[in-house]
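[step 3/7] fold_predict: job queued, chain A
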Amino acid sequence: MPPVLQRNLSSVFDVPILIPAYKPAEPLTAVVQALLDLGFRRIIVVNDGSGPDYRDRFQSIAIPGVSLVEHAVNLGKGAALKTGMNFALVKFPDCPGVVTADADGQHHPEDILRVAQRLAEEPDSLVLGARTFGSKVPLRSRLGNDITRFMMRIIMGQNLADTQTGLRGVPASLIPYLLRLTSVGYEFELDMLITCKHLSCPLAQVPIKTIYIEGNRSSHFRPVFDSMRIYFLLLRFSVLSILSAVVDYVVFWLVYRQFGSIGRSQFTARVVSVTFNYAGVRRVVFQSRQRHSVVMPRYFALAIANALLSYAGIKFLNGSLGVPAVAAKVAIEFPLFIANFAIQRDFVFTRRKAQ
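[step 4/7] structure written:
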């Protein structure tokens, strides 16, 4: 084997493989052994409070090359992933990141290797192992992924083949931000994509095999409850913007009814709604941790431009076409709302690499 290739494979096998496990079935042992046979020597298994009935199964894999970390109680997949990531950064500070894989045997060892190779080649990118969702995939998994893909494309502007994949190469530079997230369940993996977007972390997708064992019965994912939690996480991106729009319209209507001035009504409404909106949209909606000195100039420049366009449009519809002022405001600001959200998402609250 050429020396260069040997060095490259050596660096790949230094990538920690993180496996969160809650009441795992027998495939866990086979997954760990297959990774050891490939050459991986930094395998981290997190026992997420599986209980005494599973102690022997975990002890059987506590062998050289495998680090076993345990939760006293079940805390959720997200919490287990964060525990394993923190362990990896502390024990292996030289690693380019970690590769996360599921414990149920649904990720082929060669696919795990391919994701690790891609992470070693692109240590600044979040690498997603992307499955193909054909007709043989269980309906709940296919439908859940299709809905989440659609929501991510609309709300986050990201077109991803597989939003729910558990096989991911997570760069070390991203992990400190992920450790601060409050999500602890399955929604953590979606939160990871959102955080990646806001930090301008590049995304890479690696096609992988689609494996479902016994119709995915061993999965602890609860389709209704866990999907609701994930989609509620996405919903927060639009709720505050809608509330801000309601505040804006109410104030505009009250001031216009009192004074009959579009200019005064628009100015007052925009000042009140922008004040209400800024703090919430920065931390609750877009979860930005950038400095105010970076975000505020962009935000208020957008707010001023938006207000001027809105004012001009309302004046035109009201003065030239005779449309009532409040109706004109609705007609003008709906398309502005869509554009405003997209600009905030992709420019105002997205970190630039130089920052």
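[step 5/7] annotate
The chain has two domains: 3-221, 237-348.
The two ends are 42 Å apart (CA to CA).
exit 0
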